[in-house]
Amino acid sequence: MVKICCIGAGYVGGPTMAVIALKCPSVEVAVVDIWDKRIAAWNSDQLPIYEPGLDDVVKQCRGKNLFFSTDVKKHVKEADIVFVSVNTPTKTTGLGAGKAADLTYWESAARMIADVSESSKVVVEKSTVPVKTAEAIEKILSHNSKGIKFQILSNPEFLAEGTAIQDLFNPDRVLIGGRETPEGQEAIQALKDVYAQWVSEDRIITTNLWSAELSKLAANAFLAQRISSVNAMSALCEATGANVSQVSHAIGKDTRIGPKFLNTSVGFGGSCFQKDILNLVYICECNGLPEVAEYWRQVVKINDYQKSRFVNRVVASMFNTVSTKKIAILGFAFKKDTGDTRETPAIDVCKGLLVDKAELSIYDPQVTQDQIQRDLTLRKFDWDHPIHLQPVNPTSCFNVDQVKVVRDAYEATKGAHGICILTEWDEFKSLDYNKIYENMQKPAFIFDGRYVIDADKLREIGFIVFSIGKPLDAWLKDMPAVV
Ligand code: NAD
Ligand code: UDX
């Protein structure tokens, strides 16, 4: 029986390994982590992450060929293939701070593998890492005095949250990079045999190590670039009276462009896009390519611009001040169908409103009060560290009384001056907006950052409506925002 161990039981390690266990009954899979509470949750009925379909997959295999454990060393020692799926945050201090990937967790995992191993192993980079990381990892692993041989593979993960199980069941492609030596090719084949249990051969791409590592950063950069492109257009649409949905539809019909990933929004969020682009920027700078670095940096700059221009629009529309006004925030997760808030645009929007002294009433169906309070007080990039390693006394620029987290959208909007929709949860489409309008202060404003509502219907009710990228109301035209 092939034994797989995955170090890191997070959003990638957990679902990916659960699907491998389901699809490969003859493989024994252990997912290990140093975060004991997370492992306890994986072993309970309340899994640590919300992902449609995940419960079902875990229930089918847990205790049979899928195990979650804190005994990291034991499972690494026994494994034939070790996946490393630990977090690779953006560095917050020192060389490359604010851009470079912090490989502390990766390096410590590699050193531990070298220490505890008693037999040769294939070590798989599952985390997203800078191109050439495998070379550094090889150095750490090969400097053991035991004569053990390690083969390093790069097998980046392309799942998106909210559709992780679907993406893993039916991936567009699986990418495996390895050394072009006989031993490297043998290791590639061993991993290919695992995926071939459910992924057709033509979708398993094999490359050299550096191409695989770079392809992951490139894919995320291209995806994020599309969003920043359409978001840049949304600003021009508002200025000219064009409608960004119509523009997206028209350009997406060109088969060379295609219709996907052209939805304008209040900005992209999630743990990957910004982090990976900043990492790419740093790699370009280190390789003496400042023009290329600047090109990609612009994708992040436009994303920041989109979030701040949304805040400016809210404040400007409401007579240039939101001080002591109640603003309802509908949705805090970075997209629907996940409870994940990492780099959610809601953090920057909320902070922008809090600085202007707004009173926020926040509702999200999947995000807890603790999580929201933590997100609003942590410093930039500190979120990407295991919870027990996050700073104990984070600083904050607002008074804690300014933020209330409530249990439904009606409570959030009661008595509010304005509503900001920041996540596209389906339930926001079918709210009783007549009832909401009656219970709000007048004039009642709604700012839709996600295309959830039917703007014309809401205008008929009496709302003043801002939909990102859509022609502006007469009211909003009279209150131009500094963008
Ligand atoms: P995560 O923070 O949810 O999980 C990482 C886990 O690794 C944490 O539970 C942490 O405690 C654990 N860990 C850290 N150091 C460890 C060590 N030395 N030993 C044992 N456990 C350790 O992160 P994630 O979202 O699963 O992402 C993991 C990697 O995959 C990152 O590099 C990320 O960029 C990449 N990635 C993420 C996604 C996504 O959608 N989240 C998609 C593709 C790739
Ligand atoms: C992304 C990549 O899609 C995935 O391949 C990679 O493995 C990890 O990073 P994820 O961040 O989970 O996945 O979700 P994704 O669906 O890509 O959305 C990212 C952000 O972009 C979200 O905030 C989403 O709302 C936003 N988005 C997406 C838009 O604003 N417009 C779009 O058209 C699509």
TrEMBL record:
NAD(+) binds at residues 8-13, 33, 38, 86-90, 127-128, 161, 272-275, 342. SMART domains: UDPG_MGDP_dh_C (SM00984). It comes from Prunus avium (Cherry). Its EC number is 1.1.1.22. Pathway: Nucleotide-sugar biosynthesis; UDP-alpha-D-glucuronate biosynthesis; UDP-alpha-D-glucuronate from UDP-alpha-D-glucose: step 1/1. Pfam families: UDPG_MGDP_dh (PF00984), UDPG_MGDP_dh_C (PF03720), UDPG_MGDP_dh_N (PF03721). The gene is LOC110763193. One of its GO terms (biological process) is glycosaminoglycan biosynthetic process. One of its GO terms (molecular function) is UDP-glucose 6-dehydrogenase activity. Residues 328-455 form the UDP-glucose/GDP-mannose dehydrogenase C-terminal domain. Belongs to the UDP-glucose/GDP-mannose dehydrogenase family. Keywords: NAD, Oxidoreductase. The keyword Secreted does not apply. This is UDP-glucose 6-dehydrogenase. One of its GO terms (cellular component) is nucleus. The active site is at C272 (nucleophile). It catalyses: UDP-alpha-D-glucose + 2 NAD(+) + H2O = UDP-alpha-D-glucuronate + 2 NADH + 3 H(+).
